[in-house]
Design a protein that fits this description.
The chain is mainly beta and about 90 residues long. It is about 15% helix and about 45% strand. Helix 1 links the parallel strand 3 (about 50-55) and strand 4 (about 80-85).
Length: about 90
């Protein structure tokens, strides 16, 4: 099992530039760290797929997106199915 904190950050300054040719905007940002943090716990799921539990948050979340992006890039076999539990504190 792996347990990590995901610290909060506060965007102190955000400058958004004009759109580029790809229609995205360049940004310049300055963040400050906060004492608040969510706790993320990962363990093998023992099943055939990933399980993400995030009480109080409905629908897709960043943990699901990160697991999907990792599997797409590294291959589905690179990581066994995991159970992720997110304790929202922020």
């Amino acid at each position: 099992m792996i347990r990590e904190l995901a610290p909060a950050k506060l965007n102190i300054v955000l400058h958004v530039g004009p759109p580029r040719g790809d229609r995205l905007h360049p940004i310049c940002s300055l963040f400050g760290s906060l004492e608040l943090a969510d706790e993320v716990e990962l363990a093998p799921s023992g099943g055939h797929g990933d399980v993400v539990e995030c009480p109080g948050v409905e629908g897709p979340n960043l943990v699901e997106a990160a697991l999907a992006a990792f599997r797409q890039r590294a291959g589905a076999e690179a990581l066994p199915p995991v159970r992720a539990v997110v304790d929202k504190r922020i």
